Amino acid sequence: MTRSLLRVVTNALLVVCSLIVALIAIDQALRAIGYSPHLTSEWLLRSPARVLDDEVVVIRSNLLDADHYRVTPGSEIIVTLGDSFTEAPYVQRRFQYPEAMVSRLQDAGLAVDVVNMGLSDSGPDQHLRVFESRVLPQLRPSIVVWTLYVNDIGDNQRWAVYDVENDTLVPLNGDEHWIAKRGRLFKSLPFGGSVKLRSPVMRLILKAAETVWREDHEGDPTGGTLRTARKIELAIARLEQLAEQHGFETYYVLIPPQAFYVASSDRNMCDWMVRDYAALRRAIGRRPDLIDAWFGGSGLPPVDGCGSADSRSEAVADDIFFDDAVDRNALGDRHFNESGNRLLADLVAARILADRRDALLSRGCQEDEPRSAVTPGVDDGKACGRVEGLLGRHLERSDGAGRDPAAMP
Q1: Using the 8-state DSSP alphabet, how is residue 366 labeled?
Q2: In this predicted model, what pLDDT tens digit does every residue of 252-262 receive, in sequence order?
Q3: Considering only Cβ atoms within 10 Å of each terminal Cβ, which end of the chain, N or C, has fewer?
Q4: Which residues are registered as beta bridge partners of 146?
Q5: Rounded to the nearest 10 degrees, how much is the dihedral formed by the CA atoms of 94, 98, 101, 107?
Q6: Chain-centroid distance, C-alpha 317
Q7: CA end-to-end span of the chain, whole Å?
Q8: Pairing of strands 76-81, 50-53
Q9: Angle of helix 267-284 relative to helix 224-246, nearest 10 degrees?
C-alpha cells in the first residue's frame, strides 16, 4: 500500500470514528434530557407478526399462509373484515368475536366456518384491498361481515392504498407508502431492532424520514374527513359489486367508541370522535344490512356522543371494555374485552339467524313440517327451532343492551 493511499484510508477511518463518537455523544446527551420522539404506529417496527406487503402496506404474516384459508369442507364460509376490533389481538382466539359468532351459528345448526381477516392499525382501504387480493382468489364466501370503527375516517387517509379519480377507486402501490419506506429504512439501519428503538438518534432519523414521507403521501389534511368518507362510500359500493358478482351476503357492523359510554373521556378526543362517527354513519347510509353495535341502552348512541352517557352506559362500559392494565389506549378509545366480544358475536349471529329465519319462513317453514335443507345437513324444521332458540337466548343475555336485530332499520 502506497503512503498516499495509506493516508487516505487513515483519514477516512478517523472521519468514521469521529462520526461514531459524535453520534454516541449526541445519543447520550439526548438520552440524558429524556428526548425520545414519538413514532406513528411504532409497534409495527417491533412486531415480527407484521410484514411489508405491496398491496396493503403492512399485513399479518399469517394472512400470507395458505393454512389460514383452510375451512371445513362443505361449510358456508364467513369472512370478517375490519381493524383491531375484528382481529381482537388482546383476546384468546376462541373468545374473539368472529370465532364466538361462528360458534353461536353452529349451535343453531348452521354448517359454517370463519376466516378472520381483521388487521389491527388499518383502514377500510386495506380491508377492501386484502379481501380482493387475498380472499377472493382462494375462497367463495357466503357472508362477508365488515366491522367499521370511528377511527376509520382518519386511518383511511393515513393508510391509503386507493386514490380517487373521477369518483372511482384507483389502487396505489403499497411499497410507496410512507410506512413501507420507513420500515425499509428501519431495517437498513445498523444494530438490532430493540437497540435502534431505544436510541434517541435512531428515533430522530426515523421521525425525520416519517415526517417528510408522510407529508408527501397524505398531502394537505384539510378536507380529509370528507375525502376519506367518500372513499368509504366507494369501498362499500365496490364490495356490493363484488357481492353481486360472487354471490355472497354482506353485513356492515358499526362500533361506537368507548367514549360514547363514559362521561369522563378527553374532550379533544370526544370532538373528533363525534365528528368522524357522524361522517362514518353518513358514509354507510341507512343500509338494511347495517348492524349498530351499541350496548349502552336502547336505540342509538347519544347524538352528542361523549359526555352525555348515563350511569347505565358507564356500567356497561366497565363490563365490556378493557382497562388500562391490558389496553394502553386512552380511556374512551379502548377495545372490547371477552364480554364485549361475546356481545358483538351474539349481536351479529342473531342478525344472520334472523335473516335466515325470515328466508325459511318465506319458504313456508313449519317446525312440524320439515322441508328441504337450507343449511347442509339440517332440515328446515330443525333450523327454524334452533334459530328461534338462539334469538331468544341472545335477547335474554343482552338484557336490553342490544336491540333485536330483526327490528333494526
Answers
A1: B
A2: 999 999 998 88
A3: N
A4: 81, 252
A5: -60
A6: 20
A7: 84
A8: unpaired
A9: 40
